[in-house]
Structure formats: structure tokens, C-alpha cells
Design goal:
By secondary structure, this protein is an alpha/beta fold. Helices cover 34% and strands 19% of the residues.
Length: 416
């Protein structure tokens, strides 16, 4: 049953990103256009064609998590716990007063505990079964992250993991939105986490020729919509939002960042990696989101684009925006923020959803950096180079993942 009168708002944000370990430091560096890109230090990448990425700077797990717990958990699970914990702290809710049956956790990811899985395999090769333990199983289990978040928060609530490639974060938030709308919950902690800077994983992206090779100039290497673009930078981190039913939030005088209007998703069933050349999946996801929001494209101020700086994606995304927005396409403001943060794989959409919420709350649109020579056909307002102060009322987060999975979230300023 649908409960259309149950409005959903964002009351908490928590994140760990390569360009900032708190919301404020993250936002300041994002708007300043300071890229977190640098040499990969997690492993020896000297033989790799791409040797740069966006790693978390100054991250020490034991600053957040007990030493023993940090040692047994993969970085991906660590990041998710910390970001979800910070989101709950930010929302200010007293968990002692929450009915766990009215709360849920939805985590998105694409590769989950990959580093721990590879380490366990190496240990197995070297020592056989004696080289493995229970923690090897829990880190390899894709749903382990949401379980660990529930354990950390101490709330016996519903907890699940969604894995839809780069759309995972959006789909996790979309699931949470629908759970509240359908009266299954009053509070949902939703987002995504990823730690993909692992030797074999980076190697597969090198093999697919998806990553930039500008190793000598990391900060200017990723160039969305630019004629000289040659791929993206991988990043790591996590972002979670607290979604809450409006009357529940108002009853406790919660701070409201923005309202979540709708979610749309699609699957192209076209190719295991490549997008459909006409961008039909991106279009379908956007059309669904607009229909469910009862919103016109002309009402949108800002789009955070997927913007992977690959040859086809940037053109496809631009083409679909023109198709959907028509005359408004040249007026809507679009930015690609991955050159600053890196591409967080399954956590990318969650981090960029947080960016949309912050753009509404702080009335600033972050820039697309490194865009100096736009590609033919890439002729929208990409907010190049410098952040823009603007009273954002409605923002869209758009993401597209491997396997043709596409997702769109629409946020709006809360107006009572």
C-alpha cells in the first residue's frame, strides 16, 4: 500500500571521503576544487599504467574503532560503520527512544570487503584451511557491512545490503525512501561504502582502459566533459544519510537538510560494461524519478552528473539531459565532482547524494574542475572551475553503473 502523505526528509549526514573526513572539511575542499588525487600507496603499483587514485588522507582506523575490531574488519566495513555512526550523531536522535521495528539500515556497495577477501585467499594458498578464520567469511560476505553497522549502533533493526554497481548508493537511499513512504519505518540510515583501491581491482580497471593515465599530474588528471579526457580516478570512502518521516522529525525538532522527493532506476540489458549508445537507461531512470516526484524538468536547478570522464559516458549523459530538459537544458547547472573525490564505485552515488543535499542546504554548487576545452557536444553549463553561490531549490543525483544499472534521486529544499 502507498502512503503518499508520508513525506521524507534528510536529518543527518555522515561521510569519510578522500578530500575530507568530516562533512565540513569535505565540503570546503570540494567547493575550493582541491583534488584529493595522488600516488597509490596501498600497494606496489609500479608496473601499472595508472598509478594514481584518491585515497583517504590521514585516516587511522583506531581513531574511530577499537583496535581489535579495526584489525578484523576490511576497510570498506570500517568506512561504513564510521559514516553511518556520524550520520546518526548528526541527526541527534536518541536511539533509546526509537522503536527498532520502525528503523532500518540500507547499505550499498559493489565489491565490499575485497582487500580482506584477497588477503584471505593468499593466506589459504600459503597455509591451507589453517590460514582462514570466521572473520574471513564475514568480510567476504557482501551483506556483512549492513550487519556490522547494526551491531555498531546497537539497534536490532532491519538491515540489508544493495549491490547495483555505481548506482548502489542511490538505490540504497531509494529503498529507504520507499520503506518510509510505505509506512514500514520512520527512520532509515542509508548510504554506501567502498574500499576499491586494491591491486587486482585497480588492475582490472586498467585492463578495461577506464582509468586516466596522467600519473605525472594527479590533480588535473580527471577531466569530465573535456576534449582531453581519458578516464577516471578510483576513490574510497563512505557516505550515509539519515532519512526520516517528516512528522517524526518535526516532533523532535530535528534539523532538516532537504526533502527527498523520488527515486528512479533502470537496467538497460545492453552490455556488461558499456552504456547503451543512446543512453536509454539513464533516460528511463530520470523519467521515472520525475514522474514519481510530480516534477517538471524546468523546476530543477542543479544536477550532479555521473561524469566519469570517459569518452562515451560524458556525451551520453549530456545528450540525455538535453532530451529530458529541452529548452531548460542550457539553464540547468551541471557539475561532475569526481575529479576532486575520485570515483568511489558503489559508494559514488551516496557521496554525490550528500553533495546534492549540501548544495541545497548551503546554497552553493560545487564546480567541475579541469574542464578547460569542452568536447564537441558537451555544451551545457558545467559550472567550470569555480563553485557558484546559488539558492538551489531542487537537485538531482544521477549515476550509471556497469551492467546498465542506472539510478536517479531528486531532492528539494524543505519548505514546510
Amino acid at each position: 500500500m502507498d502512503y503518499p502523505d508520508r513525506r521524507v526528509v534528510v536529518t543527518g549526514i555522515g561521510l569519510l571521503a578522500p578530500n575530507g573526513l568530516t562533512v565540513d572539511t569535505f565540503w570546503e575542499s570540494l567547493c575550493a576544487g582541491r583534488s584529493a588525487a595522488g600516488p597509490i600507496t596501498h600497494f606496489d603499483c609500479s608496473s601499472f599504467p595508472t598509478r594514481i587514485a584518491c585515497q583517504l588522507h590521514n585516516y587511522v582506523a583506531e581513531d574511530y574503532i577499537d583496535f581489535k575490531k579495526a584489525r578484523r574488519l576490511d576497510r570498506s566495513l570500517q568506512f561504513g560503520i564510521i559514516a553511518a555512526r556520524e550520520a546518526m550523531k548528526d541527526c541527534g536522535v536518541d536511539l533509546a527512544n526509537i522503536n527498532p521495528g520502525r528503523m532500518g539500515i540500507v547499505e550499498g556497495t559493489s565489491v565490499s570487503g575485497m582487500q580482506h577477501t584477497f588477503d584471505s585467499h593468499r593466506s589459504f594458498i600459503a597455509k591451507g584451511v589453517k590460514g582462514l578464520n570466521t572473520f574471513s567469511l564475514m568480510n567476504a560476505y557482501c551483506g556483512g557491512g549492513s550487519s556490522e553497522i547494526a551491531l555498531d549502533l546497537g539497534v536490532p533493526c532491519q538491515a540489508l545490503t544493495i549491490c547495483t554497481a555505481c548506482s548502489s548508493g542511490n538505490d540504497a537511499i531509494g529503498y529507504a525512501l520507499n520503506a518510509i513512504r510505505n509506512d514500514d519505518a520512520d527512520i532509515m540510515v542509508a548510504g554506501a561504502t567502498e574500499a576499491p583501491i586494491v591491486d587486482a581491482y585497480v588492475g582490472t580497471f586498467c585492463a578495461s582502459k577506464s582509468l586516466t593515465k596522467r600519473n605525472e599530474a594527479p590533480a588535473t588528471s580527471m577531466r569530465p566533459f573535456d576534449r582531453q579526457r581519458d578516464g577516471f580516478l578510483l576513490g574510497e570512502g563512505a557516505a550515509f544519510l539519515v532519512l526520516e518521516e517528516l512528522s517524526h522529525a518535526l516532533a523532535r525538532n530535528a534539523r532538516i537538510y532537504a526533502e527527498v522527493l523520488s527515486h528512479g532506476s533502470s537496467s538497460e540489458a545492453y552490455h556488461s560494461v558499456a552504456q547503451h549508445p543512446e543512453g536509454i537507461g539513464i533516460r528511463q531512470a530520470m523519467e521515472k524519478a520525475f514522474y514519481r516526484a510530480r516534477l517538471l524538468p524546468s523546476e530543477v536547478d542543479y544536477i550532479n552528473a555521473h561524469a566519469t570522464a570517459t569518452q562515451t559516458n560524458d556525451l551520453n549523459e549530456t545528450r540525455v539531459i538535453k532530451q529530458i530538459f529541452k529548452d531548460h537544458a542550457k539553464r540547468v547547472q551541471v557539475s561532475g565532482t569526481k575529479p576532486v573525490t575520485g570515483h568511489l564505485a558503489g559508494a559514488a552515488a551516496a557521496l554525490e547524494a550528500a553533495i546534492c543535499v549540501l548544495s541545497i542546504d548551503r546554497k552553493v554548487i560545487p564546480p567541475t574542475i579541469n574542464l578547460t576545452d569542452p568536447e564537441d557536444g558537451c555544451d551545457l553549463d558545467y559550472v567550470p572551475g569555480t563553485a557558484r553561490h546559488f539558492p538551489v531549490k531542487t537537485a538531482i543525483n544521477l549515476n550509471a553503473g556497469f551492467g546498465g544499472k542506472n539510478s536517479c534521486l531528486i531532492f528539494r529544499a524543505f519548505n514546510g
